[in-house]
Each structure stands twice: as structure tokens, then as C-alpha cells.
Design a protein that fits this description.
- It is a single chain.
- The chain has one domain (about 5-15, about 60-280): 4-Layer Sandwich (Metallo-beta-lactamase, Chain A).
- Helices cover about 20% and strands about 30% of the residues.
- It has helices at about 25-30, 35, 95-100, 120, 145-155, 165-175, 225, 240-255, and strands at about 5, 10-25, 50, 50-65, 65-70, 110-115, 125-130, 130-135, 140-145, 180, 185-190, 190-195, 205-210, 210-215, 260, 270-275, 280.
- The longest helix has 16 residues, at about 240-255.
């Protein structure tokens, strides 16, 4: 059973592609002092065990007054990702099944929002058809930050690190389906863009007036609630990412809004409160 969160006329559902994607804590958070971990209450095994941090890779499906919006599109099917065995040449059956369980086909998606352009957030943007990468969601308007796109378009070899720009972003642009958005743009009534750089230069989150912030990779793991100044190894600018994360957590902790990152374990959403050292889930 796929869980959903309802906030007024906004229905939020996680479409999981990889339930547990595990990374050594020292690899994910190279600046984390391991002695500090010992001072925490016992860490739930589903968050970290045997030195591995466990993340989930998912999309967020929103239904807002009949409009179907997809936030990020995971790893995708048949993508060539040899550096990540769990991402490489996936069949895609689990993600498609999750979508169909909500009574939807790819043709039913109206908007695809890319918080940023890393490989585990854009994979389902395209599918392989007769040897070409074509838009998976033929009736959708794809959205991406202009700063984000321009950064990766001019990143040279770095943009080919996982191949995602070539197989999951450029085909969308070439098909005329990508719209570039700016800070404060509203993508639907009550849903607005907020630029949140650091993890990538043009990363953005989506603010829902109904009471949630979809924050992509501003925060990867609940461990960063305890240590909000610690950024992941995948952040382009770790210092700026830390500043953005602390600002976001401070803002949400003073409200009743839900924090909805990309990679928290199920259900994936949480409310938080301030503690002496950092923040904690409620």
C-alpha cells in the first residue's frame, strides 16, 4: 500500500524506485566527526547501520486540483550508469508499477519538476525508444532552473560524469518540452519555486502553501538534522549547501510545515523541532 499525505486539495505520494540505497557514512559525509555519532541516542537501523547510511530514491507525485505533478524522476530505465551497479540498466518495472497503482500512466503527468539535474533525479525524464531517448511523459511540461541548466550545459566533462545530461536532459530540451524557471515562479496555484543553491548551483525547492516544502537534496539524511552544518560529498559547494540547509531547517522548525526531502526513508515526510544541538523529527 502506497501511503499518501493530504494537505487540503494537495495529495502527496512517494513513488519509490530504490527503497534502500546504502552509502558508507564516511563517503557520504566526509567532514562528519565520527566521535559525535557516539553521543547521539541509538540511531535507527533503517537510517544507519554497520557504518552505512541508508537512503531512499523516489519521486514525489502531487495531485493539485486535478493537475498531476512529478517532482524529480529518479534513476530511470535502461540508463548506462556503470559506476553505480544498483542504477545501471534498471528495468524500471517497480517505478512504473508504483505509478500505475495510483491509477496513472506516463501520459497523465502534466508537469515534471527537476529540483536539480543529478542522475538520480532526472532518469525517468526519458525512455529508450527505437534507439533514441524520448520524453517519458509526452503531455508534460518539464521544469528546470535556468541557472541549473546553464551550469551543466557548460560543465564540460563534469556534465558527463553519469551521462544524465546527455540522455535525460538534452532530449527534453531538443523536443521543446523544457521550460526554465526562476526564483518565486509559481508552477500551479499555491506551489512556488524557491532557489536553494549549494548542493548544485541552481538547485531549487518547491513551497506548498498548504504546508510543505519539497527540498530535494538540501538534506539527504536525518543525520543532518543533528548536524545541519555537515554537507554531503555530492554537494558542489558544501559551505553554501550548509548555509541553505540551516536557513531552511530554522524556518520550518518555527512552523507546522512538513519537510519533504528526496531521500528520507518512508514515509519520507516529517515535521521537525529545534533541539539544543540541532533539530529532530517530530
Amino acid at each position: 500500500m502506497i501511503k499518501s499525505l493530504r494537505l487540503g486539495d494537495l495529495c502527496i505520494t512517494g513513488l519509490t524506485e530504490i527503497e534502500s540505497f546504502s552509502i558508507p557514512v564516511g563517503t557520504l559525509f566526509p567532514d562528519l566527526n565520527h566521535n559525535l555519532l557516539e553521543k547521539l541516542e541509538p540511531i535507527a537501523p533503517r537510517i544507519m547501520s554497520e557504518g552505512l547510511v541508508h537512503l531512499t530514491i523516489r519521486s514525489w507525485l502531487l495531485n493539485k486540483s486535478g493537475t498531476n505533478i512529478l517532482i524529480d524522476s529518479c534513476v530511470g530505465a535502461q540508463k548506462n550508469r556503470p559506476n553505480h551497479s544498483t542504477w545501471h540498466k534498471r528495468s524500471g518495472s517497480k517505478w512504473l508499477r508504483a505509478l500505475s497503482e495510483k491509477g496513472l500512466r506516463p501520459e497523465d503527468i502534466d508537469i515534471v519538476m527537476c529540483t536539480h539535474l543529478h542522475a538520480d533525479h532526472v532518469g525517468w525524464n526519458t525512455k529508450l525508444e527505437n534507439g533514441y531517448w524520448v520524453p517519458t511523459f509526452p503531455n508534460a511540461q518539464y521544469l528546470c532552473g535556468r541557472t541549473e541548466y546553464e551550469y551543466w550545459a557548460n560543465a564540460g566533462e563534469k556534465s558527463d560524469e553519469h551521462g544524465a545530461f546527455a540522455d535525460s536532459v538534452l532530449p527534453i530540451v531538443e523536443n521543446g518540452k523544457m521550460k526554465f524557471v526562476e526564483d518565486s515562479d509559481e508552477i500551479a496555484n499555491g506551489l512556488s519555486i524557491e532557489i536553494s543553491p549549494g548542493h548544485t548551483p541552481g538547485h531549487f525547492c518547491l513551497n506548498a502553501e498548504a504546508g510543505a516544502i519539497f527540498c530535494g537534496d538540501i538534506i539527504h539524511s536525518p543525520l543532518q538534522l543533528n548536524f545541519p552544518n555537515i554537507s554531503s560529498a555530492f554537494c558542489e559547494d558544501p559551505v553554501l549547501a550548509s548555509t541553505t540547509r540551516i536557513k531552511l531547517l530554522s524556518k520550518i522548525a518555527e512552523t507546522s510545515q512538513f519537510l519533504i526531502p528526496a531521500h528520507f526513508r518512508d514515509p519520507g515526510w516529517t515535521k521537525i523541532r529545534k533541539t539544543e544541538l540541532g533539530y529532530e523529527k517530530i
